[in-house]
Write a structure and sequence with these properties.
single chain, alpha/beta, nine-stranded mixed sheet, four-stranded parallel sheet
Length: about 525
């Protein structure tokens, strides 16, 4: 069995394989890439480091870290987790670090221990984080000091006080020798929990194992048409998100360079130009903000070779404007979910314009079907629910056996997305069975916002929907029926929401109504509200 990462043999965009079954893909992972037994995701990064020790692995805030140096730091962090904090395989470690080289080092160290990393969204408020702490019961918090107040309040609400490691205040871990491959860690053991918004108003912890994340690492370079080990990829979207395994951490399995920053339109544009970035991912709203910025005419973007985008639709005329701004870039649109490691289907650059509106074909090793309410496959052109099967899918939800059984029934991931396939097999999405809003790539469940609004004593009924927005794709709109004699203002509702949930979830539009159109079963007819929202 091969144990060497054959980076140069990863198929390129011209060789893309859409008809590889999940079973064949898993066999290839074992035979060709040596992914089996106790081979972890961090081992895959170490494999690239063995091959390219002097390549620059990460660039952040003026710091360049080679692959050899990165593995020394990961080994030191790994030893500290075990020796100082007693972290053991299966333990959960909360990770609250914004985009930085620290994030990658500590995340990969947690996985190397055999523990379970729980990345946290820095935008959360104490109430939201407290739920995740109670749900995941971490043995340790690895954090930046600027999140002290947020964590203090969250732990008080949760009634838990795990030890905390402040990585920007404590000295770096002392040298602990060369990297040592993992031993005795089952590739199918849980290694990461990514929280995603839930339809019941509380988030669900999506559990992935090394096998699902390694599968994503193998298929991502082919899907996203990455240039290869000489690539410089910019991480400007959040690293705490599952998309990190589709774009950023995957870069480190190739021996390429990851330039790490956050997104700010002008700053990001200068980063792309100054660092001669070859590839990056952005949500459509970010691409549109860059395309509309006057700086685009002053900077050279001819070196950009690949741009991935997704999480929201892109109109054809705007896609052409983005192509004009990045004339040599291949534009690839993908769609996935946290439950699928972020990948299900992809629309290659060759079809970016010819099939615009479609989200593409199944990625290698993934099968998809369109089914009716009884899980029976429907003919091409007929709308149904998208279900998928592949090695990159989650193993389940944390502490949610019923939800896991429902979502993975029959061995297929039920996405909740409604769509159809054309006669060529390309997938088109038309709606979401789950009542979710996608604002600038951020998933927001309407029930989550509604639950917060109902915390206000003066609210009788409320309904939250997504309404079209040219920049963000959708905006959050709340319709509220106040209790008799109560006067509420939009500003009060928005302030209440921002105090009790991440600010990006707060409604940008608040409309007070005198009554709601209801169904025969007493449910608010959100379809009627959508007509008002788009009028």
């Amino acid at each position: 069995m091969s144990t060497e990462m054959v980076v140069d043999d990863i198929p390129g965009p011209r060789d893309r394989r859409y008809d590889v079954t999940p079973e064949a893909f898993v066999a290839e992972m074992a035979e060709r890439y040596g992914i089996d037994g106790d081979f972890t995701f961090t081992d895959m990064v170490a494999r690239a480091a063995d091959r390219y020790p002097d390549h620059v692995a990460m660039v952040h805030m003026g710091r360049d870290t080679t692959y050899a140096g990165m593995m020394l730091r990961i080994q030191a962090a790994r030893v500290m987790l075990v020796d100082r904090f007693g972290v053991r395989p299966g333990d959960r470690v909360e990770l609250l670090i914004d985009n930085s080289d620290h994030y990658a080092i500590w995340y990969l160290a947690i996985l190397a221990v055999g523990a379970v990393a729980v990345p946290i969204n820095p935008k959360l408020v104490p109430r939201e984080l407290a739920f995740m702490v109670q749900d995941s019961a971490p043995v340790l918090f690895v954090q930046e000091s600027r999140f002290d107040d947020l964590i203090d309040q969250s732990l008080d609400l949760a009634g838990l006080q795990p030890p905390r490691l402040v990585v920007d205040r404590d000295p770096p871990p002392p040298p602990a020798g060369d990297w040592q491959p993992t031993v005795g860690i089952d590739v199918r053991a849980p290694c990461a929990i990514y929280y995603t918004s839930g339809t019941t108003g509380t988030p669900k912890g999506v559990v992935h194992n090394h096998h699902s994340l390694l599968a994503c690492a193998v298929l991502s370079p082919e899907t996203w048409e990455y240039p290869g080990p000489d690539m410089r990829l910019l991480a400007c979207t959040p690293m705490f998100h599952i998309a990190s395994h589709v774009f950023f951490l995957v870069t480190l399995t190739l021996g390429a360079t990851l330039v790490i920053d956050g997104y700010q339109t002008e700053r990001t544009m200068r980063q792309i130009a100054d660092h001669r970035i070859d590839a990056f991912f952005a949500v459509p709203s970010q691409l549109l903000m860059m395309e509309q910025h006057p700086l685009k005419d002053e900077l050279d973007f001819g070196h950009v070779r690949a741009i991935g985008f997704g999480a929201a639709p892109m109109a054809m005329d705007r896609l052409q404007a983005v192509q004009d701004m990045f004339p040599n870039a291949r534009l690839v649109h993908c769609m996935g979910q946290t439950e699928s490691s972020g990948l299900i289907v992809a629309l290659s650059s060759a079809e970016a314009f010819a099939k615009i509106g479609s989200v593409g074909l199944a990625v290698p090793g993934c099968e998809l079907r369109i089914v009716d309410g009884e899980d029976r496959e429907v003919p091409h052109g007929t709308v149904g629910e998208l279900v998928s099967r592949g090695p990159q899918n989650m193993i389940g939800y944390l502490n949610r056996e019923e939800a896991t059984a429902e979502t993975l029934r029959g061995g297929w991931l039920h996405t909740g997305d409604l769509g159809y396939r054309d006669t060529d097999g390309y997938l088109f999405l038309v709606d979401r069975a789950k009542d979710m809003i996608i604002r600038g790539g951020e998933n927001i469940y309407s029930t989550e916002v509604e639950d917060v609004i109902y915390m206000m004593s003066g609210v009788s009924l409320c309904a939250v929907i997504g309404i079209p927005d040219k920049l963000f794709g959708e905006e959050v709109a709340a319709f509220i029926l106040a209790k008799p004699g109560v006067v509420l203002t939009a500003e009060e509702v928005q302030a209440h929401c921002r105090a009790n949930m991440a600010s990006y979830k707060a409604p940008r539009v608040v409309t007070f109504v005198e009554d709601f159109a209801m169904t025969a079963t007493g449910k608010i007819q959100k379809g009627e509200l959508r007509k008002l929202g788009t009028a």
